[in-house]
Structure prediction request, 100 residues.
Amino acid sequence: MFNGDIIFESALAKSREEAIETLCSRLYEQGRLNDLNAFKKAVFERESEMSTELAPNVFVPHAKSKAVVKPSVAHMKTKDGHIKALAGLARALNDDSINI
Prediction:
């Protein structure tokens, strides 16, 4: 679920959207998604329904999607904050009905 190949501690994104794009692409490259565009669409649709901002500049973008091959959590710093996963989300990954 947690893998050093999808943690970007030194990478910075200029925006939340850029971070989401980068992380989705990295998940796809690591074989954790079978359809990059379908997953990105699901994440951005979820964000448009309700923000996943937990605190100022702390976001947990996620989506339910059949494009997920292996439940995963990716983390990346943004210029203005962090996108980070919480322990509760890791537990949720064990639920087959939730893809993050």
